From TrEMBL:
<keyword id="KW-0119">Carbohydrate metabolism</keyword>
<dbReference type="GO" id="GO:0006000">
    <property type="term" value="P:fructose metabolic process"/>
</dbReference>
<dbReference type="GO" id="GO:0000287">
    <property type="term" value="F:magnesium ion binding"/>
</dbReference>
<dbReference type="InterPro" id="IPR044015">
    <property type="entry name" value="FBPase_C_dom"/>
</dbReference>
<feature type="binding site">
    <location>
        <begin position="116"/>
        <end position="119"/>
    </location>
    <ligand>
        <name>substrate</name>
    </ligand>
</feature>
<protein>
    <recommendedName>
        <fullName>Fructose-1,6-bisphosphatase class 1</fullName>
        <ecNumber>3.1.3.11</ecNumber>
    </recommendedName>
</protein>
<dbReference type="GO" id="GO:0019253">
    <property type="term" value="P:reductive pentose-phosphate cycle"/>
</dbReference>
<dbReference type="GO" id="GO:0005829">
    <property type="term" value="C:cytosol"/>
</dbReference>
<feature type="binding site">
    <location>
        <position position="116"/>
    </location>
    <ligand>
        <name>Mg(2+) 2</name>
    </ligand>
</feature>
<dbReference type="GO" id="GO:0030388">
    <property type="term" value="P:fructose 1,6-bisphosphate metabolic process"/>
</dbReference>
<dbReference type="GO" id="GO:0006094">
    <property type="term" value="P:gluconeogenesis"/>
</dbReference>
<feature type="domain" description="Fructose-1-6-bisphosphatase class 1 C-terminal">
    <location>
        <begin position="200"/>
        <end position="328"/>
    </location>
</feature>
<keyword id="KW-0460">Magnesium</keyword>
<feature type="binding site">
    <location>
        <position position="242"/>
    </location>
    <ligand>
        <name>substrate</name>
    </ligand>
</feature>
<feature type="domain" description="Fructose-1-6-bisphosphatase class I N-terminal">
    <location>
        <begin position="6"/>
        <end position="195"/>
    </location>
</feature>
<dbReference type="InterPro" id="IPR000146">
    <property type="entry name" value="FBPase_class-1"/>
</dbReference>
<keyword id="KW-0113">Calvin cycle</keyword>
Length: 333
């Protein structure tokens, strides 16, 4: 693996190898990588830049919005929207679809979570940005509508995330493997650091907010108890790891093996995470790395979306572990 490969040159390599990864797609990914650099610049000095704390507004999810949520949202919309390559955008922080400042040539839609892990922003714990790209159904950007945003996850043409942690890493897929790039601030480039990521078939970590134990259904409780039982032959007990930033929990499990679950609970009847800009992009990456992502019954990528901000229960990570979770959720174990 040549660690001097920039993410932009990797996009071009994909363009040469795979016809559907055309120059439009590589330009879109280039825009996303650029926006990530702008968001990173503020995240790493957030404590100095007066962008910690609450913005004083709530979003369509009914959640209190953080200043950094809004900053990242505005940066992504303006930095990416200036090029006109996206006909429409959808963000966790905007009630309805966004018509970018310029959208005359864009046959694509971008759905994104500008800042994931908002509860960790003010306490210097890893947060991230998640994105998902679709091609619009018609060839006329002017005709693009919400319908173009509500496509099944299996229709994604590219997806990825950026994790702002001890180092900043961007991970993406165009349906041809999963690749990670670490940001080198001395040269301002994302350099290839994780080529062709493959997630272990069986993990050693589980991520669940057990603080909601009393809200979990019996299947979920029995699955978590199963992971905590002693059985060397199946690598149990698993260790618990829960950062509370989906991007960070997912990234760890992707590299080391493990399972992240956010099931339906009494409080979140349809789970907490959003299908279009959290579950779908991560499910695409997870499957491309050999893992599995379901809502306990259905493959996430096969779910037909109905709303931009709909939520879904989520079981994602090492294939073996997610299959077992499903068996418990379906009462087969
Ligand atoms: O605090 P809880 O209920 O465990 O929820 C944590 C989950 O909520 C999230 O913060 C939701 O995402 P946002 O921060 O983008 O709203 C996930 O990153 C995380 O996995
Ligand atoms: Mg999120
Ligand atoms: Mg968010």
């Amino acid at each position: 693996m040549n660690k001097l490969t920039t993410i932009e040159s990797h996009f071009l390599q994909q363009q040469k190898l795979y016809p559907e990864v055309n120059h439009e797609v590589t330009d879109l990914l280039h825009d996303v990588a650029f926006a990530a650099k702008l968001v990173r610049r503020e995240v790493v000095r957030a404590g100095l830049a007066d962008i910690l704390g609450l913005a004083g507004t709530t979003n369509v999810q009914g959640e209190e919005v953080k200043k950094l949520d809004l900053f990242a949202n505005e940066k992504i919309i303006s930095a990416i929207g200036q090029h006109g390559r996206f006909a429409l955008m959808g963000s966790e922080e905007n009630d309805s679809v966004i018509v970018p400042p310029k959208n005359d040539t864009g046959n694509y839609v971008l759905l994104f979570d500008p800042l994931d892990g908002s509860s960790n922003i003010d306490v210097n714990v890893s947060v991230g940005t998640i994105f998902s790209i679709y091609r619009i159904k018609s060839d006329d950007p002017g005709k693009a509508s919400l319908d173009d945003c509500l496509q099944k996850g299996a229709e994604q043409i590219a997806a990825g995330y950026v994790i702002y942690g001890s180092s900043v890493v961007m991970v993406y897929t165009t349906g041809h493997g999963v690749h990670g790039f670490t940001y080198d601030p001395t040269i301002g480039e994302f350099l290839l650091s994780h080529e062709n990521i493959v997630t272990p078939e069986r993990g050693k970590y589980y991520s669940a907010n057990e603080g909601s134990w009393h809200e979990f259904n019996e299947g979920t409780k029995r699955f978590l108890d199963y992971l905590k039982e002693e059985d060397k032959a199946t690598g149990r007990p698993y260790s618990t790891r829960y950062i509370g930033s989906f991007v960070a929990d997912f990234h760890r499990n992707l590299l080391t093996g493990g399972v992240f679950i956010y099931p339906a609970t009494k409080k979140h009847k349809n789970g907490k995470l959003r299908l279009m800009y959290e579950a779908n992009p991560m499910a695409f990456i997870c499957e491309q790395a050999g893992g599995r992502a379901t809502d306990g019954e259905r493959r996430i990528l096969d779910i037909q979306p109905e709303e931009l901000h709909q939520r879904t229960p989520l079981y994602i990570g090492s294939k073996h572990d997610v299959l077992i979770a499903e068996e418990f959720e379906q009462g087969k174990r």
